[in-house]
């Protein structure tokens, strides 16, 4: 190979570094293996099912990507999701369950999610509490409130139209549908990608996560940017909450959103985003979420005990981080 | 027993297919100081890192005491008695001074750490370095860059190595500390230590080294006996062409004052600093390490809280509470510590340059093409040597990183440029370009403050020099008064003036 083209070839892979390539390769491999292991896997219905299942945690993970790249973490997403879902259902029932009621509930839910995210941001930036601790606190508070309002039971919506949001499908041809959550997830992913990759805010998120001091010396308003990442993750939780609570038309105060924080963080990390901050990308998170979804699906198809699925997931996460380590 | 202790033979090194060292052979003798000079990116640090086990050569052999060794990691090199002081600071900011000095070689008493002993030893070593005032119990975070460098040196000394590598140890030091360091180097020489000394300061190389190897573009250009070669000859060998007069003609400042600072105070660091800066003026700040120059500059641009102080810009009272305010007013500051404050090492060159001025590149989204074009301009202007502009700055040589920070600093389009150690780690050729640039910059009614521990730079460049000592301005020197002796007399407090 002539030297110049050889260099370009190398450059290509240098810029497309392998923490990025890694998650893509893993996804492709997993896809093929799954198909061979069980041909049912390739059926459009099954694929759509996987995509629908991942869109819930996936949407939260998209927001989490911002927080993690900026060097933070948010553990409260699972309980926040339950809380927002519960409150939206209360509002819907208050206003009689019609379209207007649903709109009001959505505005309340979205507004509250962003306000709570803002509060978390303040705790972390002005209160100087470590993100892990601050969100561990809010996680406990949110869950407790959800349980309290429902008295440990369930929030049940009286609306007959609400389920159309999360349970809706867009037909594509004769017997093929795309569930609305899948559409929301991918559209939101595109928006998040644009924000992270092509706006000032996104650039600042990377800078802060990588070297906060240098960000300050670059006249970046570090506190504001950090707070905004928590507002974004809050809004992402609202989207998921909307999709899930409407699909079930109810929210369980004990089990809704349980463990979502771990799955969301796992998706981000598997996608090649560094827990140390400063590095990462949105599509990685999308791949990470799909990888988790495929693993779950395949284990189900292969009749692996659900009790063992956690172990497999754990191994994948550890493997992903090991690959990242190797790089640096 | 032969005097040669280390021999590196036919060392080649490439990074992902890009070769940076070509067939390099170099050797070191007991009791010898071996200088290593060359332009930014010539491969000096890379070569030294290979000898200290931080990098592996692609091919070539290293012999110690005539026995081939495989320095597969720094620990292995350490066992062979090799220690390296890196070009960039490598201290753990959150640990105390003594903990840093004994990092990885803690003194123990049974299972427990013998803190008392370590603190005591640290005191001794620091005293040897003339740094009695550094408290071993201080957090490293709170030290100035120069003090950190001295701690770094203390850590290396405490290894009692046979081969000591110093990669630009003095780039953050003033003449005063440099002198102490040289005394120490001479003592080590007496003890038979072999020292490799990397520097861009040819004067120092002449003074302290016995032999000097010149690298250019990854190749050895020659090895010279220092006593037979002049500074100019070395410079020419390094650059491959003749160097003209280093400093441009001094500009003629206007009469109007662009900025006036009145009674600036930072508790414990800066005391009642007042000065004026004229349009078209280059104003130098000289002083020993710890004199408060950096702190003064940081307080001025809002990066550090000031207890009091008023700032007048073009006669108008302005308030600068954070760096954003300063930026809006057209004041730009080049930080002293590039790794800590100047650069985001994970980001590429383009993004680092535009980080401070992204608003200029906004359409609806960031205009990446425009960013790229701007970055190309700077690459031309300062001769930034890189594989391409998407290369992460962590992979650039030290001097080239400095050029990136300087570019970033200009992105603000400042009318007042405050440069803190602007040519730290920069080679002669680029230094020359930067001096030219500063001279041109002030021609258009703009002004520049230069803080530098390199006296020659201050002397050669500035219209006026303010000398600081212990947080106060102790002298104002102009014209003929700007010379080495005067500055040192005031900086050390031997001579006092009521300013
Ligand atoms: N880890 C790395 N990956 C890729 N390229 C590298 C890496 N480290 C160094 N380089 C390249 O190798 C060349 C030599 O770098 P080196 O740091 O040895 O220069 P130097 O002579 O020490 O320069 P300076 O005077 O600026 O410190 C440079 O072009 C640099 O970009
Ligand atoms: Mg170097």
Detail the topology: elements first, then pairings:
The complex is a heterodimer of chains A (328) and B (499).
Chain A: H1 3-15, H2 18-37, H3 44-69, H4 77-94, H5 99-125, H6 131-150, E1 154-156, H7 163-167, E2 169-171, E3 177-179, H8 180-198, H9 200-210, H10 212-216, H11 222-248, E4 250-252, H12 260-270, H13 282-301, H14 306-327
Antiparallel strand pairs in A: 1-4, 2-3
Helix pairs in contact in A: 2-13, 2-14, 3-8, 3-9, 3-11, 3-12, 3-13, 4-5, 4-6, 4-11, 5-11, 8-9, 9-11, 12-13, 12-14, 13-14
Chain B: E1 4-15, E2 18-29, E3 33-38, H1 44-51, E4 59-64, E5 67-69, H2 74-79, E6 82-85, H3 97-101, E7 108-109, E8 112-113, H4 115-128, H5 145-157, E9 163-167, H6 175-190, E10 194-198, H7 202-208, E11 211-216, E12 219-225, H8 231-239, E13 257-266, E14 270-278, E15 282-287, H9 293-300, E16 308-313, E17 316-318, H10 323-328, E18 331-334, H11 338-342, H12 349-354, H13 368-382, H14 398-410, E19 416-420, H15 428-443, E20 447-451, H16 455-461, E21 464-469, E22 472-478, H17 484-492
Parallel strand pairs in B: 3-10, 3-11, 6-9, 9-10, 15-20, 15-21, 18-19, 19-20
Antiparallel strand pairs in B: 1-2, 1-4, 4-5, 7-8, 11-12, 13-14, 13-16, 16-17, 21-22
Tell me about this structure:
- The complex is a heterodimer of chains A (328) and B (499).
- Chain A has a domain at 43-258.
- Chain A is 74% helix and 4% strand.
- Chain A has helices at residues 3-15, 18-37, 44-69, 77-94, 99-125, 131-150, 163-167, 180-198, 200-210, 212-216, 222-248, 260-270, 282-301, 306-327, and strands spanning 154-156, 169-171, 177-179, 250-252.
- Chain A has a two-stranded antiparallel ribbon.
- The mean pLDDT of chain A is 89.
- Chain B has two domains: 4-239, Rossmann fold (3-Layer(aba) Sandwich), CATH 3.40.50; 257-492, P-loop containing nucleotide triphosphate hydrolases (Rossmann fold, 3-Layer(aba) Sandwich), CATH 3.40.50.300.
- Chain B is built from 17 helices and 22 strands.
- Chain B has helices at 44-51, 74-79, 97-101, 115-128, 145-157, 175-190, 202-208, 231-239, 293-300, 323-328, 338-342, 349-354, 368-382, 398-410, 428-443, 455-461, 484-492; strands spanning 4-15, 18-29, 33-38, 59-64, 67-69, 82-85, 108-109, 112-113, 163-167, 194-198, 211-216, 219-225, 257-266, 270-278, 282-287, 308-313, 316-318, 331-334, 416-420, 447-451, 464-469, 472-478.
- Chain B has a six-stranded mixed sheet, sandwiched between helices. A six-stranded mixed sheet of chain B has the order 18-19-20-15-21-22, sandwiched between helices.
- The relative contact order of chain B is 0.12.
- The mean pLDDT of chain B is 90.
- Residues 15, 20, 38, 40-46, 87, 385, 395-400, 425, 427 of chain B line the site of adenosine-5'-triphosphate.
């Amino acid at each position: 190979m002539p030297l110049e083209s050889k260099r370009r070839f190398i450059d290509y892979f240098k810029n497309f570094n392998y923490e990025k390539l890694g998650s893509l390769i893993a996804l492709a491999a997993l896809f093929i293996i799954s198909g061979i292991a069980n041909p049912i896997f390739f059926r459009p219905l099954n694929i759509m099912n996987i995509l629908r299942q991942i869109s819930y945690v996936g949407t939260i993970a998209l927001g989490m990507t911002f927080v993690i790249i900026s060097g933070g973490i948010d553990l409260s997403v699972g309980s926040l999701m339950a809380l927002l879902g519960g409150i939206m259902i209360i509002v819907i029932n208050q206003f009689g369950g019609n379209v207007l009621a649903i709109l009001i509930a959505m505005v309340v839910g979205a507004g509250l999610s962003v306000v709570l995210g803002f509060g978390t941001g303040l705790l972390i930036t002005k209160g100087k509490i470590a993100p892990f601790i601050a969100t561990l606190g809010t996680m406990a508070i949110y869950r407790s409130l959800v349980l309290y309002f429902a008295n440990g039971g369930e929030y049940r919506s009286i609306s007959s139209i609400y389920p159309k949001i999360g349970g809706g499908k867009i037909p594509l041809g004769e017997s093929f549908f795309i569930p609305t959550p899948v559409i929301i997830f991918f559209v939101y992913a595109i928006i998040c990608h644009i924000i992270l990759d092509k706006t000032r805010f996104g650039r600042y998120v990377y800078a802060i996560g990588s070297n906060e001091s240098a960000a300050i010396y670059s006249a970046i308003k570090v506190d504001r940017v950090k707070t905004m990442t928590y507002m974004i993750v809050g809004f992402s939780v609202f989207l998921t909450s909307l999709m899930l609570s409407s699909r079930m038309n109810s929210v369980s105060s004990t089990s809704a959103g349980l463990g979502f924080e771990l799955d969301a963080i796992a998706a981000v990390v598997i996608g090649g985003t560094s827990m140390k901050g400063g590095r990462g990308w949105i599509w990685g998170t999308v791949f990470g979420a799909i990888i988790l979804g495929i693993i779950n699906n395949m284990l189900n198809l292969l009749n692996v005990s659900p009790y063992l699925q956690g172990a497999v997931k754990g191994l994948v996460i550890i493997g992903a981080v090991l690959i990242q380590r190797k790089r640096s | 027993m032969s005097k040669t202790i280390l021999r590196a033979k036919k060392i080649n090194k490439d990074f992902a297919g890009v070769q940076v060292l070509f067939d390099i052979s170099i050797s070191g003798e007991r009791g010898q100081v071996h200088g290593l000079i060359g332009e930014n990116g010539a491969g000096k640090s890379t070569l030294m890192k290979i000898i200290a086990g931080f990098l592996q050569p692609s091919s070539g052999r290293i012999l110690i005491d005539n026995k081939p060794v495989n320095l597969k990691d720094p620990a292995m090199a350490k066992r062979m008695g090799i220690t390296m002081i890196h070009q960039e600071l490598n201290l753990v900011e959150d640990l105390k001074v003594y903990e840093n000095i004994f990092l990885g070689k803690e003194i123990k008493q049974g299972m427990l750490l013998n803190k008392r002993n370590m603190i005591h030893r640290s005191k001794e070593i620091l005293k040897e370095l003339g740094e009695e005032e550094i408290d071993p119990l201080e957090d490293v975070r709170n030290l100035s860059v120069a003090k950190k460098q001295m701690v770094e040196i203390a850590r290396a000394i405490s290894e009692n190595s046979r081969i000591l590598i110093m990669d630009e140890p003095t780039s953050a030091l003033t003449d005063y500390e440099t002198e102490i360091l040289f005394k120490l180097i001479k003592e080590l020489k007496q003890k038979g230590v072999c020292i490799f000394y990397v520097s861009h300061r040819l004067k120092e190389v002449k003074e302290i080294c016995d032999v000097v190897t010149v690298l250019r573009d990854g190749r050895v250009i020659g090895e010279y006996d220092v006593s037979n070669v002049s500074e100019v000859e070395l410079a020419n060998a390094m650059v491959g062409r003749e160097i003209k007069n280093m400093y441009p003609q001094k500009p003629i400042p206007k009469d109007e004052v662009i900025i006036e600072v009145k009674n600036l105070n930072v508790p414990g660091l800066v005391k009642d600093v007042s000065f004026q800066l004229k349009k078209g003026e280059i104003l130098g700040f000289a002083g020993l390490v710890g004199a408060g120059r950096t702190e003064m500059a940081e307080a001025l641009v809002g990066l550090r809280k000031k207890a009091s102080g008023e700032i007048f810009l073009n006669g108008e009272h302005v308030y600068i509470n954070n760096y954003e305010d300063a930026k809006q007013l057209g004041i730009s500051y080049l930080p002293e510590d590039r790794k800590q404050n100047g650069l985001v090492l994970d980001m590429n060159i383009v993004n680092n340059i535009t980080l401070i001025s992204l608003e200029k590149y906004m359409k609806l989204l960031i205009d990446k093409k425009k960013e790229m074009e701007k970055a190309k301009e700077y690459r031309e202007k300062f001769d930034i040597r890189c594989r391409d502009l998407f290369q992460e700055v962590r992979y650039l040589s030290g001097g080239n990183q400095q050029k990136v920070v300087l570019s970033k600093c200009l992105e603000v389009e400042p009318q007042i440029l405050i440069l803190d150690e602007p040519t730290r780690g920069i080679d002669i050729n680029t230094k020359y370009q930067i001096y030219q640039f500063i001279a041109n910059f002030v021609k258009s009614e703009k002004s520049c403050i230069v803080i530098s521990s390199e006296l020659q730079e201050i002397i050669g460049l500035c219209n006026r020099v303010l000398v600081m000592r212990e947080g106060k301005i102790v002298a104002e020197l102009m014209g003929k008064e700007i010379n080495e002796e005067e500055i040192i007399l005031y900086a050390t407090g031997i001579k006092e003036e009521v300013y």
